[in-house]
Specification:
With about 80 residues, the chain is of the alpha+beta class. The chain has one domain (about 1-75): Mth169, Chain: A, CATH 3.30.1280.10. About 30% of the residues lie in helices and about 30% in strands. The protein contains two helices and three strands. The chain has helices at about 15-30, 50-65, and strands spanning about 1-10, 40-45, 70-75. Strands 2-1-3 form a three-stranded antiparallel beta sheet, with helices on one face.
Length: about 80
C-alpha cells in the first residue's frame, strides 16, 4: 500500500464562504493579523498498484475535486 495525500482547495478568485466565516471568527477572537483564509480538504488514500499518483489524479478528476471551482494536488508519501 502506498499512502497518497490529496489536498483540495478553492481556486483563487472563487468565493470561499467557509474561509470568510473562519476569518471573521478569528478576528472576533482577537486575532487581528489574519489575512485571507481559505478552507479546503485533505484526503488520505492507501492505494495499491504501480502508479498510485496517476490513480489518485484520476480519482480527483472523477470525484474528489470539482475542477470548476477547486484545485487539487497529489502527494505520494511512500
Amino acid at each position: 500500500m502506498t499512502l497518497v495525500i490529496v489536498t483540495v482547495m478553492p481556486k483563487k478568485g472563487v468565493l470561499d464562504p467557509q474561509g470568510q466565516a473562519v476569518q471573521g471568527a478569528l478576528s472576533h477572537m482577537g486575532f487581528a493579523d489574519i489575512g485571507d483564509v481559505r478552507v479546503g480538504k485533505r484526503i488520505e488514500l492507501e492505494i495499491n498498484g504501480h502508479d498510485p499518483a496517476a490513480q489518485a489524479d484520476k480519482m480527483c478528476q472523477d470525484l474528489l475535486a470539482n475542477q470548476l471551482i477547486e484545485d487539487y494536488s497529489v502527494e505520494v508519501q511512500g
